[in-house]
């Protein structure tokens, strides 16, 4: 019985640590801005810059962080907050980025893909003539995945 209790406590501590680490990383990423005058955590900026233009574009001056979006999908009201959003009026595109800190990228994949699809459906209502695309940035291994 004692092992079960300790296993439960350990799993709760691990989950709490993961949530706290994820929230801390989100907070740091929220304030990263590239462009003429980069701002934010220097290590994160260096990591983003090392990954190439596709990821860098989510942190340029025309990007937005923590963007609220709401609307109806299949008759249900949905309200969400997008980690990063880039609207390009010249090319009629909208790109969404969501950060995930999971070590196991498959554990909640279906849930995360559904989340990105909700974002794109909500944004399609706001930008009906734009091409909407979504991405996940896996922060554990810094992989950018198109959804």
Describe this protein's structure.
There is one protein chain. The mean pLDDT is 87. By secondary structure, the protein is an alpha+beta fold. Strands 1-2-3-4-5 form a 5-stranded mixed beta sheet, sandwiched between helices. It has 4 helices and 5 strands; from the N terminus they run αααβββαββ. It has helices at 2-30, 42-50, 53-56, 109-126; strands at 63-73, 76-88, 93-100, 131-138, 143-146.
Number of helices: 4
In terms of DSSP E residues, the strand content is: 25-35%
Second CATH tier, the architecture: Alpha-Beta Complex
**Cα-atom Rg, whole angstroms?**
17 Å
Q: Report the strand count.
A: 5
Structural class computed from helices and strand pairing: alpha+beta
* Helix/strand order: HHHEEEHEE
Chain-averaged pLDDT: 87
- Low-confidence residue ranges: none
If strands are numbered along the chain, what order do they take across the biggest sheet?
A: 1-2-3-4-5
CATH topology, by name, is: Lambda Exonuclease, Chain A
Q: Choose one word for the global shape.
A: globular
Q: Helical proportion?
A: 40-55%
Q: Report, as a whole number of angstroms, the end-to-end distance.
A: 44 Å
Domain module tally: 1
Reading off the top of the CATH hierarchy, the class is best stated as Alpha Beta
Largest sheet: 5 strands, mixed
Primary descriptors:
147 residues, single chain, alpha+beta
Could you give a short description of this structure?
The protein is of the alpha+beta class and 147 residues long. The chain has helices at residues 2-30, 42-50, 53-56, 109-126, and strands spanning 63-73, 76-88, 93-100, 131-138, 143-146.
């Amino acid at each position: 019985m004692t092992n079960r209790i300790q296993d439960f406590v350990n799993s709760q501590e691990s989950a709490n640590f993961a949530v706290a680490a994820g929230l801390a990383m989100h907070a740091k990423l929220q304030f990263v801005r590239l462009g003429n005058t980069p701002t934010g955590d220097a290590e994160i900026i260096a990591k983003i810059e090392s990954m190439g233009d596709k990821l860098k574009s989510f942190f340029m001056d025309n990007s937005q962080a923590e963007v609220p979006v709401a609307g109806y999908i299949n008759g249900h009201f949905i309200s969400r907050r997008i980690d990063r959003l880039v609207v390009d009026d010249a090319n009629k595109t909208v790109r969404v980025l969501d950060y995930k800190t999971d070590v196991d990228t498959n554990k909640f994949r279906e849930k995360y893909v559904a989340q990105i699809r909700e974002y794109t459906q909500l944004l399609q209502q706001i930008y009906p003539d734009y091409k909407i695309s979504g991405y996940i940035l896996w922060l554990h291994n810094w992989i950018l995945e198109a959804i």
